[in-house]
Amino acid sequence: MNKLTDQEMTKIINDKTISDQTEEVRKQVMAFAFGEEFMASENKGEKQQADPLNDLTDEWESYCKAQSLECLSAEEMHLTQDLTADQKTYINDFIERWDDQARREIS
């Protein structure tokens, strides 16, 4: 099996057809979605110390990759990129969640 492109893996994720794929394809898609390090780790089910801003950063980087967008800050992307209505909605929501979390960490 050849290595899937990011676009092919994104389509599988968006179409919600991961479980319909071969084991080899599922492994590629899961490593793409969650990262090689996480997939190789032995403690996937263990409770870990939460780092909400780090988690949001990871989410943002994954979103940019899945959407084939340059990974700028959310504010910068909202102002400088040609985005779909769905992307604008997601980015506005993301900015609100980031700001809410940042305020919690300051208080």
Can you walk me through this structure?
The N and C termini lie far apart (51 Å). With 107 residues, the protein is an all-alpha fold. The longest helix is centred in the last third of the chain and has 22 residues, at 85-106. It has two domains: 6-40, no CATH class; 52-106, no CATH class. The chain contains six helices and no strands.
What descriptive keywords fit this protein?
107 residues; mainly alpha; 2 domains
Cα shape: flat
Number of contiguous helices = 6
Name the poorly predicted regions. Answer: none
How many domains make up the 3D coordinates? 2
Radius of gyration: 16 Å
Proportion of strand residues: under 5%
Major β-sheet, in short?
none
Report the structural category.
Answer: mainly alpha
Secondary structure: number of strands: 0
Can you write the helix and strand succession as a string? Answer: HHHHHH
What value does the average pLDDT take? 88
CA distance, first residue to last residue: 51 Å
In short:
The chain has 107 residues and is mainly alpha-helical. Helices cover 65% and strands 0% of the residues.
What are the SSEs and their pairings?
Elements: H1 6-14, H2 23-34, H3 36-40, H4 52-66, H5 74-80, H6 85-106
